[in-house]
Design a protein that fits this description.
single chain, 381 residues, alpha/beta, Aspartate Aminotransferase, domain 2, seven-stranded mixed sheet, three-stranded antiparallel sheet, 11 helices, 38% helix
């Protein structure tokens, strides 16, 4: 099998899985309990929290563990906007993940807020020069993703943050960092809130965190037992958190080499496929996009048909976000960038991990070329 769908999920590292298993079967204690074994577990969780915080230049008490990216995004939006008073404006983009795009729309309706979309460049990044067209003194909340999950465009959060602070000084700035964290380095995040998901980083599913900058008005998410400083109640997911911690430490230790390997595989696959007729790159250039995401359109072929054809040969890819894979209709992200018609119909997303190889890229390229030629012949009949 050649797995090129790592933006959907990744294979858990064996060391991360073993550590999670240890905290399910041996040190299985609830860290909220009042005996020594539980205190030991709580200490391990707090050490993991401090390490995660150090990776983004944050304090440990600014990390709120959640069930993953979707919960983090929901909590960021609702936990902030419900505190706003007076005239409220929410600013986001039309190419956000559904957990931001749909949640922002729901929050705007619930809190009677104005919802505005920031202008985009053709490569999927926010047009910073035109941000002044949508920002105002009434802007209360801004959510702009760090890396787009379908085309790999990378937003300059420093420049965006500076523009927001100048034009909307009272606004809270959130970024969905699910596809960026540990893949696009940021030693100090210029945001108030940042969402992260573990299973994109070779850690178990069902865990993530939300960075919440000290000092902002944030009411949190789930209400109940008061865990996570009363910002996200619910029994602490110790196996998930500590499995995540192991994966994060591996990523940190190998960061430069792993980034370079993902970029090599991405570049090799693009070089192999770009020579085929009627193959177009969607989104940013190979060099400016995230190292692990490549989106190509194969004109004259339906992306879904090609995806299933490749699956028969053990090559797993996608036509877009896993969260939208079962929804019928146009691709919202590509549509917002003016990629329509045959180009949108033939789009395939390839996404890589540090353990993919250039040999896999070569093998996959040969299979893709063969299947594209075959499917184009069938379509012409």
């Amino acid at each position: 099998m050649i797995y090129f769908d790592n933006s959907a999920t990744t294979q858990t590292l064996p060391d991360a899985a073993r550590r999670a298993c240890r905290y399910m079967t041996e040190e299985f204690f609830n860290p909220s309990a009042a005996y020594a074994a539980a205190f030991s577990v709580e200490k391990s969780v707090n050490e993991a929290r401090a390490f995660a915080a150090s990776l983004i230049g944050a304090d440990a008490n600014e990390i709120v563990y959640t069930s993953g990216g979707t919960e983090s995004n929901n909590a960021a939006i609702f936990g902030t906007v419900k505190n706003c008073r007076g005239k409220i404006q929410i600013v986001t983009t039309e190419i956000e993940h559904p957990s931001v795009f749909e949640t922002a729309a729901a929050a705007a309706k619930l809190f009677n807020a104005e919802l505005t979309y920031a202008p985009l460049n053709p490569d999927g990044t926010v047009n910073i020069d035109r941000l002044s067209e949508v920002l105002s003194q009434d802007t209360a909340f801004v959510s702009i993703m760090h890396v787009n999950n379908e085309i790999g465009s990378v937003n300059d959060l420093d420049r965006i943050s500076a523009k927001i602070r100048a034009l909307s000084p009272n606004a809270v700035f959130h970024s969905d960092g699910v596809q960026a964290f540990m893949k696009v380095r940021a030693k100090k995040l210029p945001v108030d809130l940042y969402s992260v998901s573990a299973h994109k980083l070779h850690a178990p599913k069902g865990v993530g965190f939300l960075y919440v900058r000290n000092g902002i008005r944030f009411s949190g998410g789930q209400i109940g037992g008061g865990q996570e400083r009363n910002l996200r109640s619910g029994t602490t997911n110790v196996p998930g958190i500590l499995g995540f911690d192991t994966a994060l430490r591996a990523y940190h230790a190998n960061e430069t080499a792993w980034h370079a390997q993902m970029f090599r595989v991405k570049s090799r696959l693009y070089r192999n496929l770009s020579g085929l007729p009627d193959v177009l790159l969607n989104g940013p250039s190979i060099e400016t996009g995230a190292p692990h995401i490549l989106n190509l359109s194969f004109l004259g072929v339906r992306g879904e048909v090609l995806m299933h054809a490749l699956e028969r040969y053990g090559v797993l890819v996608s036509t877009g976000s896993a969260c939208s894979s079962k929804k019928v209709g146009k691709n919202r992200i590509l549509n917002a960038l003016g990629i329509t018609g045959a180009r949108q119909e033939g789009a395939i997303r390839f996404s890589f991990c540090p353990f993919n190889t250039e040999q896999e890229a070569d093998i996959a390229s040969g299979i893709i070329e063969e299947q594209v030629k075959l499917l184009r012949r069938y379509k012409r009949r």
